[in-house]
Amino acid sequence: MNDTASAAPSAPSGRAQRIAERTRGENWKKPPRRIETSECITCDTCLRSCPEEFGAIFDIGLDVVIIPELCSGCPACVLECPVDCIYLDEDWTPTGESVWNHIELTAGGAR
Fold it and tell me: In this entry, which stretches build a coiled coil (predicted)?
């Protein structure tokens, strides 16, 4: 019997798994970040500074948003934001279906 033929395909890991499951990393202790859209100048600096393994920041319509399920709470975006409009989101709510549909459409390519 060929071991490779009987091996099941591997499950997605990391960011792809969080997108598939729509959940935050189990070991993430910090709350996710959020962007205060009324203060944001839509420069996309935060989007470009978000580490690829998280890829939590998206342009959705005219707003730049952080998807809490993909955000580890690291300060990379905060350190780069020129207008200081990114805050901890202690009371985050799950991301809505329409946003997940956008993420799934863009997950294969560049953010």
Answer: none
